[in-house]
């Protein structure tokens, strides 16, 4: 199994498109990222949360939630809570406090991929990277 820290070719899939999940896993990607954030319109976020699963592959399955502080964040955490995803991808990660708030909801065994996308995130990147649950940092692409 691929480790979160060594993933090189993940494939993002909108979480409201379950017919694409298996295709993504069979594409040669080394992980599948189910996206609840950018790929999903506000109107579709509830539907996307209901489609979350990891049962379609043995590859690592990561879910990208909406950023801490957004109106969709808490509902994303509720949807993710009982599914054993390989990691949670956190957009606009800006503080250890935000990471800890996620872990308070999901438990301390969750692996985090922190997306550093803002000036504050860059300023706090070292402390975010030192958090024991943060497996990797990713810059805004």
Q: What would you say this structure looks like, in words?
A:
The protein is of the alpha/beta class and 141 residues long. The chain has a single domain (29-139), classed as Phosphoenolpyruvate-binding domains (TIM Barrel). 30% of the residues lie in helices and 21% in strands. The protein has 5 helices and 6 strands; from the N terminus they run βαβαβαβαβαβ. The chain has a 6-stranded parallel sheet. The longest helix has 12 residues, at 119-130.
Q: What's the helix and strand layout?
A:
Layout: E1 10-14, H1 21-25, E2 31-35, H2 45-51, E3 61-64, H3 73-80, E4 87-90, H4 96-106, E5 112-116, H5 119-130, E6 134-139
Parallel strand pairs: 1-2, 2-3, 3-4, 4-5, 5-6
State mean pLDDT (0 to 100 scale). 95
Shape: globular
Main sheet record: 6 strands, parallel
**Number of E-state strands:** 6
Question: Approximately how much beta-strand content do the residues carry?
Answer: 15-25%
Q: What is the radius of gyration computed over CA atoms, rounded to a whole number of angstroms?
A: 14 Å
CATH architecture: Alpha-Beta Barrel
Give descriptors for this structure.
single chain; TIM Barrel; 6-stranded parallel sheet; 5 helices
Brief summary:
With 141 residues, this protein is α/β, with parallel strands linked by helices. 30% of the residues lie in helices and 21% in strands.
């Amino acid at each position: 199994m691929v480790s979160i820290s060594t993933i090189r070719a993940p494939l993002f899939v909108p979480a409201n498109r379950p017919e694409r999940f298996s295709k993504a896993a069979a594409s040669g990607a080394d992980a599948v990222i189910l996206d609840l954030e950018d790929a999903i319109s506000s109107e579709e976020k509830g539907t996307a949360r209901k489609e979350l699963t990891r049962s379609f592959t043995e590859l690592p399955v990561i879910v990208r939630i909406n950023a801490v502080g957004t109106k969709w964040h808490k509902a994303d955490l509720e949807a993710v809570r009982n599914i054993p995803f390989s990691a949670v991808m956190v957009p606009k990660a800006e503080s250890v406090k935000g990471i800890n708030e996620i872990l308070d909801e999901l438990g301390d065994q969750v692996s985090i991929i922190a997306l550093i996308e803002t000036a504050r995130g860059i300023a706090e990147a070292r402390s975010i990277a030192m958090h024991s649950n943060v497996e990797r940092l990713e810059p805004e692409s």
